[in-house]
Amino acid sequence: MTQLKAVLFDKDGTLIDFQATWAPTFLTILEELSAGDAPLMARLGETCGYDLATRRFHPDSIVVAGSNDDIAAAWAGLLQGRDIDALFADLNARVGDMSLPHLTPFPDLLPVLDALSDLGLRLGIATNDGEESARTQLATLGLDARFETVIGFDSGHGAKPAPGMVLGFCEALGLSPAEVVMVGDSLHDMHAGRSAGAQTLAVTTGTVPAEALRDHADHVAGSLTQALEWIRARAS
């Protein structure tokens, strides 16, 4: 197997706790969009797989792996008469800041990033979140300097599961896809990595169970710490 030279991470559910960070943020978004219309709020939540009773996302929620464009398309029929493009341009501009009170990195994130840097591996992020939102979160965590490239659904490479983000990362760093591992918690991440020709490493720290990921990844790990051991063996 080709020696690894870089790690391309998904963000939500991989580096930060998806439910803890985005479930309360999303509740605020639903409240804004529904403006006191409880039936509309319920329909918006149901359409995107958000349980208002538990204030958590369903495992198959479009928000788990989809982009903001996917969410906008799902809601378009429920928000008739409103300028969807303008609405989501506004949300894209604010959603990073909206998430900051709830931003929850996984406890082992910093030690794992330190270990990867010690191995000389180059790091990047490919997220179906917006690029500016991702950069806002990373800056708040003091991690923005750790990643050479941050690619969002709006960065010009398309969104996962298409391979554009992975190929864009490889091009930016001058690496072949085989020298990169795509690390993520969703099938979108694994499909993007495999279709680009990268190695793939799934983590079960998001909402998707190991059995659903296993056939689509070179390896499945239960945490970033466990993922590090697999990466270490292929980077030496």
Question: What does this protein look like?
Answer:
The chain has 236 residues and is an alpha/beta fold. It has 2 domains: 6-17 and 103-235, 3-Layer(aba) Sandwich (Rossmann fold), CATH 3.40.50; 19-102, no CATH class. The protein contains 11 helices and 8 strands. The protein has helices spanning 18-34, 38-47, 62-65, 68-75, 84-99, 109-118, 131-141, 164-173, 187-196, 210-213, 224-235, and strands spanning 6-9, 50-51, 56-57, 122-126, 149-151, 180-184, 199-203, 219-221. Strands 5-4-1-6-7-8 form a 6-stranded parallel beta sheet, with helices on both faces. Helix 1 packs across helix 2, helix 1 packs across helix 5 and helix 5 (84-99) runs parallel beside helix 7. The radius of gyration is 17 Å and the shape is elongated. It starts with 5 loop residues before the first strand and ends with a helix. The model has no long low-confidence stretch (mean pLDDT 95).
Produce the secondary structure layout.
Elements (H helix, E strand, L loop, with lengths): L5 E4 L8 H17 L3 H10 L2 E2 L4 E2 L4 H4 L2 H8 L8 H16 L9 H10 L3 E5 L4 H11 L7 E3 L12 H10 L6 E5 L2 H10 L2 E5 L6 H4 L5 E3 L2 H12 L1
Parallel strand pairs: 1-4, 1-6, 4-5, 6-7, 7-8
Antiparallel strand pairs: 2-3
Helix pairs in contact: 1-2, 1-5, 5-7, 6-11
